[in-house]
UniProtKB/TrEMBL annotation:
Family indicated by similarity: Belongs to the dethiobiotin synthetase family.
EC numbers: 6.3.3.3
Organism of origin: Streptomyces phaeochromogenes
Cofactor: Mg(2+)
Positions of ATP binding: E13, V14, G15, K16, T17, V18, D51, E110, G111, A112, G113, G171, S172, E202
Reaction catalysis annotation: (7R,8S)-7,8-diammoniononanoate + CO2 + ATP = (4R,5S)-dethiobiotin + ADP + phosphate + 3 H(+)
Residues engaged in binding substrate: T42
Localization (cell): Cytoplasm
Protein name, UniProt field: ATP-dependent dethiobiotin synthetase BioD
């Protein structure tokens, strides 16, 4: 795995933070040092726990860094504008990740929302930061109906920008998957033209941290430091 991994989603509430925590936990279990960078945290007040804090709570001894925090739950560019605070720009994200990479084996950069959510009024996005970092991108997708379209659109945009799509992780695999979810196990790698690299169980963010850490590797494929096997998982 590259020393910097950018983690994006096909939209909001698809399980990016819990997936980031699982990747971090697997890396820590393998003896790697890990930093988590959240460029823009929205919808969280000063003193409250943000996504990077949640990753640290679940995964363990990671270095967690936020570049900016905005109180309203909006896209970062709009949230910055409304708050009167400075926006985050892709070059700042790349610089911060680069500095963390000098002291850590793995840096996880977790975006806000989807790949093209704007950080600033100039239209800078997480994709631009990934390009500056020359870092692979992991896409977190939902499991059920509608995910094929959003996943394919995200994958096409990554290819159009000549960014490396590492693979797709299902950010919240249902305890009782419906027909669409089961079929999507086979269809997602086809539309993404990239491998399925894991399935994070629904609700696992509510597990005690010690249990989360012990199980995280079993939810991720070897390419992410785990033991999960897509063919076995997909078997009837």
């Amino acid at each position: 795995m590259s020393s910097v991994l950018v983690i994006t989603g096909t939209g909001t509430e698809v399980g990016k933070t819990v997936t980031t925590a699982a990747v971090a936990a697997a890396a820590l279990a393998a003896g790697r040092s890990v930093a988590v960078l959240k460029p823009a945290q929205t919808g969280v007040l000063p003193g409250e726990c943000g996504d990077a804090d949640e990753v640290a709570r679940l995964a363990g001894a990671v270095t967690s860094v936020e570049l900016a925090r905005y109180p309203e739950p909006l896209a970062p560019a709009r949230a910055a504008r409304r708050s009167g605070l400075a926006p985050v720009r892709p070059v700042e994200v790349a610089e911060a990740a680069g500095k963390l990479a000098a002291d850590h084996d793995l840096v996880l950069v977790e975006g806000a929302g989807g790949l093209l959510v704007r950080f600033d009024d100039e239209g800078g996005t997480l994709a631009d930061a990934a390009r500056l970092l020359d870092a692979p991108v992991l896409v977190v997708a939902s499991a059920g109906l509608g995910t094929l379209n959003t996943t394919e659109l995200t994958a096409r945009e990554l290819r159009a920008r000549r960014l490396d799509l590492l693979g797709v992780v299902l950010g919240s695999w249902p305890n009782d998957p419906d027909l669409a979810s089961r079929c999507n196990l086979a269809d997602l790698p086809v539309v993404a033209e990239a491998p399925l690299l894991g399935a994070i169980p629904e609700g696992c963010g509510g597990l005690p941290a010690a249990i989360f850490r012990a199980r995280a590797s079993s939810w991720l494929a070897p390419r992410l430091g785990g033991t999960w096997n897509a063919e076995t998982f997909s078997a009837p």
